[in-house]
Design a protein that fits this description.
The chain has helices at about 1-20, 35-45, 195-200, 245-265, 275-295, 310-335, 345-360, 365-385, 400-485; strands at about 25, 30, 65-80, 85-95, 110-115, 125, 130, 140-145, 150-160, 170-180, 190-195, 215-225, 230-245. The strands form three sheets. Strands 3, 4, 5, 7, 8, 9 and 11 form a seven-stranded mixed sheet that branches. The protein has a four-stranded antiparallel sheet with strand order 6-10-13-12. Strands 1-2 form a two-stranded antiparallel ribbon. It is an alpha+beta fold.
């Protein structure tokens, strides 16, 4: 009897040791005591997990999803298609009531990584998405023993953005990234900000600051919206404010244009009566046209509007055309004066008297001296002609005249007739020469008057042109300085 009882007791010892071991029976199989805590915890969490429903025990409970955003790089800004491509670090966390455990039962394990395909994930999307970027796939999420799930992943975001290029290359762009649940309304999924808005605004810790665009700040704002009086949806907006670095465009676009305009102003100091000024300004105009063809691909092109720098180039081209037209007008005045009439008196009064005083021309006395010299020259020519006329022969001795009168009367009469014909011919030639000289002197007077008018008009138009260029440059410089410092 005793041996039988002892044998039965020995047979029950292995069963008792099995019941006292740390291993437990879960899901139809017995876990060995030597199985790692991570495997036991993953099996414990995912064995009966249903990822198709929202992870709350009471359906009235709202799932609060906290999100965060850090801008890593600005990849491209497509002004023509109005698309902004950025690379951001996106973070979100929420509480899953079915992913909680007691760390004491699993070797004090408080955090575990689980496959993202095995659990419920909120359907948070970006409303401005226009294309799927080349974002790396992160297959895991972190889960803490309190049920808090952290989903951290980098995203290449290609979003639609209303780009304003009027201030190019000193433009500042403000593009929004709107995160919202595409299906669940605010009673099911609510959004909040992971960090404080001040920390998000000036966070440049991961931003690559060596590209064309500079990150100024990131603003965040929560709001609710509804579509056609339906249930409200929660959305979190992030406003990414970036500014273009203008140094490259200033050196390659603005400075060459400014240099050409300065050379056009310097070209006014060439003498107006020489033909070199016209050829010089035509060369400048052709050079500026080639410059615009070269830089046309650099300027942003949109169907909405034209940047101010494009208007600046067009106005500069118009100023060069106006300068060439003014030069052609002045050259026309100071050349081929033989076909022109005398300068009208009102033109002399306005340009040679009033304009010289208004323009503060120092050598304006030579204009009046030039007008008086022409009249003095004509009077001098008339005096020379009068002194050159022949005088009749007068006898100084009466006896000589009387003695010679009888014998030379016939010869004198014949010689007087021949001399009179020759003298008339000489007088006609002299008169023709005098008229030719007077006509030439008159042409010279007309040419001198038109040359004086051309010089005064050239100075007047040059100062008007210079004032227009300076006013235009100061206005653009002030606008661009304000935009750059904004």
């Amino acid at each position: 009897m005793v041996p039988t009882a002892l044998g039965a007791l020995l047979a029950l010892l292995p069963l008792a040791s099995t019941l006292q071991s740390p291993g437990t029976q879960h899901g139809g199989r017995v876990l060995e005591p030597s199985e790692p805590a991570l495997r036991r915890l993953a099996h414990h969490l995912l064995a009966h997990y249903q990822k198709g429903t929202r992870p709350v025990r009471d359906w009235r409970t709202t799932t609060n999803v906290a999100i965060d955003l850090m801008v890593y790089a600005i990849l491209s800004v497509d002004e023509k298609n109005q698309v902004l491509t950025t690379y951001v670090w996106y973070r979100q966390h929420w509480t899953d009531e079915f992913l909680k455990w007691d760390p004491a039962r699993f070797d004090n394990l408080t955090q575990i990584s689980l496959p993202v395909e095995s659990i419920w994930v909120p359907d948070i999307l970006i409303n401005e998405f226009v294309d799927v970027g080349k974002s790396p796939h992160v297959p895991y999420v972190y889960v803490s023993h309190h049920g808090e799930v952290q989903n951290l992943k980098p995203i290449q975001v290609m979003t639609a953005c209303s780009l304003d290029i009027y201030n190019f290359p000193f433009d500042v762009q403000n593009c929004s990234l709107t995160f919202t649940s595409w299906l669940h309304h605010i009673r099911d999924i609510n959004l909040s900000l992971w960090r404080q808005p001040e920390l998000v605004k000036f966070d440049r810790s991961v931003f690559m600051n060596q590209g064309e665009w500079e990150l100024l700040y990131v603003l965040s704002r929560f709001q609710e919206f509804s579509v056609k009086s339906s249930d409200s949806y929660a959305e979190m907006k992030f406003y990414v404010v970036i500014r273009r670095r203008p140094l490259f465009y200033t050196v390659s676009l603005l400075l060459p244009s400014i240099f050409l305009m300065v050379m056009d102003i310097v070209g006014f100091y060439l003498p107006p009566h020489s033909g070199e000024r016209v050829s010089f300004k035509i060369t400048l105009l052709l050079g500026y046209s080639v410059f615009l063809i070269i830089v046309s691909d650099t300027l942003p092109a949109t169907a909405v509007g034209t940047p101010l720098i494009g208007i600046y180039f067009v106005v500069c081209m118009a100023l060069l055309v106006i300068s060439l037209t003014e030069t052609i007008l002045i050259v026309r005045l100071v050349h081929k004066q033989d076909l022109q009439p005398h300068v009208p008196e009102w033109v002399k009064h306005l340009l040679l008297e009033k304009a010289t005083i208004l323009l503060c021309i120092r050598d304006r006395k030579k204009f009046s001296q030039g007008r008086t010299q022409s009249s003095d020259t004509s009077r001098q020519v008339e005096n020379n002609d009068s002194t050159a006329k022949p005088t009749p022969y007068v006898c100084e001795d009466l006896r000589e005249c009387g003695a010679a009168g009888g014998t030379r009367s016939a010869l004198a009469f014949a010689g007087r007739m021949d001399g009179s014909a020759a003298l008339q011919e000489v007088l006609r030639e002299t008169t023709a020469i005098r008229q030719l000289l007077e006509k030439r002197e008159e042409f010279r007077d007309v040419a001198r008057e038109w040359l004086q008018v051309g010089y005064v008009l050239d100075i007047l138009l040059f100062r008007v042109y210079l004032a227009a260029v300076l006013a235009y440059s100061i206005t653009l410089g002030t606008l661009w300085s304000v935009w750059r410092d904004a």
